[in-house]
Amino acid sequence: PLIGRLMFELPEEMGLIAVAVRQTQGKGRGGNVWLSPVGCALSTLHISIPLHSNLGQRIPFIQHLVSLAVVEAVRSIPGYEDIELRVKWPNDIYYSDLMKIGGVLVNSTLIETTFHILIGFGFNVNNSNPTICINDLIAKFNREEGTELKPLSADCLIARTVTVLERLIEVFQEKGPNGVLPQYYKYWVHSGKRVRLRSEDGPLAWIVGIDDYGYLQVHQEGEGVESVHPDGNSFDMLRNLIVPK
């Protein structure tokens, strides 16, 4: 794409973002197609991360920071703190633990001692099909709580996401994973969840968190804690399975 060529031609201190009204060839993880109807917030963002930095040594964490930034973009607005938007490891945004509402895709290129990162993120703001959207969640909250929260716009949420992401990256660079994990766990869907590994009759394990490199940690009885790499595995929440991709 154009942004992928432009990112090497601009000064390193200059940020770059592309915002799409709709996409016709959206990409997901593992070669999946990402459908992008009108009403979604769709962006590709370029950032530079020094290799010899906290985040440069833990590049898989970026997708978690972006997922968290999307959720925070909504839930840090006064009055919107209890909108049931959550993060799902490794790179999804969910309504509670019920329905996917968005996703993140990160591509990184190392040139000398700098990672050039292209972050694609999309989330459903104002389109009730084919799943649910953030403004549906706000309307539902208003009905249940008697509040009058206004619907949000895609432009506003993209801007807020980028602002929150910048802050999360600063904190991570200063304090490492422990600077952001408490907030991440506050919003993630997995705490204490029991899963099967590899197949429906595979061994039982409990999700305990993510490690210093952003990989999921599971505790298997008698086996201790092990890390699961996102590039080789997907997490099927409907069947509570961690399966090789």
CATH class of the largest domain: Alpha Beta
Look at the structure and name the CATH superfamily of the largest domain.
Bira Bifunctional Protein, Domain 2
Treating each run of at least 4 consecutive H or I residues as one helix, how many helices? 5
CATH architectural designation of the largest domain = 2-Layer Sandwich
Mean pLDDT: 81
Termini separation = 26 Å
Helix content: 10-25%
Strand order of the largest sheet: 1-4-8-7-6-5
Contiguous runs where pLDDT drops below 50 for at least 5 residues? none
In words, what does this structure look like?
- This protein is of the alpha+beta class and 245 residues long.
- It folds into two domains: 186 residues, BirA Bifunctional Protein, domain 2 (2-Layer Sandwich); 52 residues.
- A six-stranded antiparallel beta sheet has the order 1-4-8-7-6-5. It has a six-stranded mixed beta sheet with strand order 12-11-10-9-14-13, with no helix packed on it. The protein has a two-stranded antiparallel ribbon with strand order 2-3.
- α2 packs across α4.
